[in-house]
Amino acid sequence: MKIPIKKTKKPSTRAKLGAGIKKEKIKKPKVKKTEKTLPQEKLPPKELKKPPLPVKPEKYLEAIGRRKTAIARIRIFTQGEKVFLVNEKPYNLYFPTLELQQITTASLEKMKCFDKFRILIRVKGGGIHSQAEAIRQGIARALILFNPDFRKRLKKAGYLKRDPRKKERKKFGLKRARRAPQWQKR
Description:
- The chain is α+β, with helices and mostly antiparallel strands.
- Helix content is 29%, strand content 15%.
- The N and C termini lie far apart (82 Å).
């Protein structure tokens, strides 16, 4: 005849660890604040004055030009000093060669309004040549916002069309987009 064996439950690890240990609360020392605030009467008179009225922002025309991975943001101001700045530098310092300078100012020269505007440009990405072409397109777009009659001449010159040619992506198994690895006989 078999004698039934009672199985006893093993105490859990939690019960082993926590058995007989009381958790004590850690008391943090109280820190007294010593900062004193001055009443409104003792503040200097500058802080009691009303803030000045906001200055009206200058109105400008904004456009974006693109080429490859270059993006140019153009702002044309009709008032103010007549300057042409690219990334906060004069355009002839930013673009060192005469060819690049001619590309950037081509749309302004076409419309004969080079000295009529203050032009601020932010350009990033791409190379220096694609940045120049992105600026040309952005200025052409901004000039159309200024005067819609300019559109016909700028479109005929090709300054409004975004050059769609971009670098093709690299494919796996190839060196570049289409360049295959060099073949070896042995």
